[in-house]
Write a structure and sequence with these properties.
Elements lengths: L5 H80 L6 H82 L4 H13 L5 E5 L2 E2 L8 H9 L12 E3 L9
Parallel strand pairs: 1-3
Antiparallel strand pairs: 1-2
Helix pairs in contact: 1-2
C-alpha cells in the first residue's frame, strides 16, 4: 500500500469511525432487543398467570359443586330407600326411629342444596371475571405479538444495515496503515465504539477534558497521530478535515 500522509490517514480513520459509530449503535441495539423481548415475554406470562389462577379457581369450584351434587344424589337415594322401608316396619318405635332418620337426611339434603346454590352464585361471579380476564389476556397477546414482530423486523433490518456497514468497513480499513489500524481497533474495543474523537473548544470530545495548546499544535502539525492524555483516544481537529468545496 502506498504511504499516505498523516492527514490523509486521519481522513480514512474519520471515515472508519463514522462506520464504526453506526456499527456500535446497531450492535448495541441487537444486544438490547432480545433483552427487551425477554422482559415483554415475562410480563405477558405474568398476565397469563393471573388468568390461569382464575381458571384454576373456576375448576376448583366446578369440582366442589360436582362433589356436593354427588353427595346430594347419594343422600336422595338414601332417603328414597328409607321411605320405601318405612312401610315394612312393624312397631311404632321402629317407625319413629325411621322417621327421625329420614328427617335427619332431609335436613342434610337441604344443607347440600343450599351449598350447591351458593357455589352456583360464586361460579357466576367468577365466570364473569374470567371472561374479563380472558378478553384482557387476548388483548395483551395481540399487543405482545405485535411488539415481538416489530422486534423481529427491526433485528432483520439491523442485520442488513450491519452487513452493508461491515462491507464498507472492509474497504476502508484496507486503506489504513496496519499498525495504525491495530492501535485504532485496540482503542475502540475498550472505549464503547469510539477510538477517534474531535477536539472542539480545546476539549477532547471523548472524555471532555481540556486539551493543551501544545497538543492542539501537535495535531495541526500532522507529523504523527496524537492521543488524548486522559482517555487515550486518537484526536483530530474537524476544521483540518473538512471536505473541499
Amino acid at each position: 500500500m502506498q504511504k499516505i500522509s498523516i492527514k490523509e490517514e486521519l481522513d480514512k480513520l474519520i471515515a472508519l469511525q463514522e462506520i464504526d459509530t453506526q456499527l456500535y449503535r446497531f450492535r448495541k441495539e441487537q444486544d438490547e432487543k432480545p433483552k427487551l423481548l425477554d422482559a415483554l415475554t415475562k410480563e405477558f406470562e405474568q398476565k397469563k398467570l393471573v388468568f390461569k389462577e382464575f381458571e384454576e379457581k373456576s375448576k376448583a369450584l366446578l369440582l366442589k359443586r360436582k362433589g356436593k351434587e354427588g353427595e346430594l344424589s347419594t343422600k336422595e337415594e338414601t332417603i328414597r330407600q328409607l321411605k320405601a322401608k318405612q312401610f315394612r316396619v312393624k312397631t311404632n318405635k321402629e317407625m319413629d326411629a325411621m322417621l327421625t332418620e329420614i328427617k335427619g337426611h332431609e335436613m342434610d339434603k337441604s344443607l347440600l342444596e343450599e351449598a350447591i346454590l351458593k357455589i352456583f352464585d360464586e361460579q357466576d361471579v367468577l365466570n364473569r371475571e374470567l371472561e374479563k380476564q380472558k378478553a384482557a389476556v387476548k388483548e395483551e397477546e395481540n399487543k405482545f405479538n405485535q411488539e415481538k414482530q416489530a422486534i423481529d423486523n427491526r433485528l432483520k433490518e439491523i442485520e442488513g444495515y450491519t452487513k452493508d456497514l461491515e462491507a464498507k468497513r472492509s474497504v476502508v480499513e484496507k486503506q489504513i496503515n496496519q499498525k495504525t489500524l491495530a492501535q485504532y481497533n485496540r482503542i475502540i474495543n475498550g472505549k464503547d465504539g469510539l477510538a477517534l474523537v474531535a477536539v472542539k473548544d480545546n476539549a477532547c470530545q471523548g472524555c471532555f477534558i481540556n486539551v493543551t495548546h501544545q497538543i492542539v499544535n501537535e495535531i495541526q502539525m500532522s507529523d504523527r497521530i496524537i492521543f488524548c492524555q486522559m482517555c487515550a483516544r486518537m484526536l483530530y481537529i474537524p476544521e483540518d478535515h473538512e471536505p473541499r468545496q
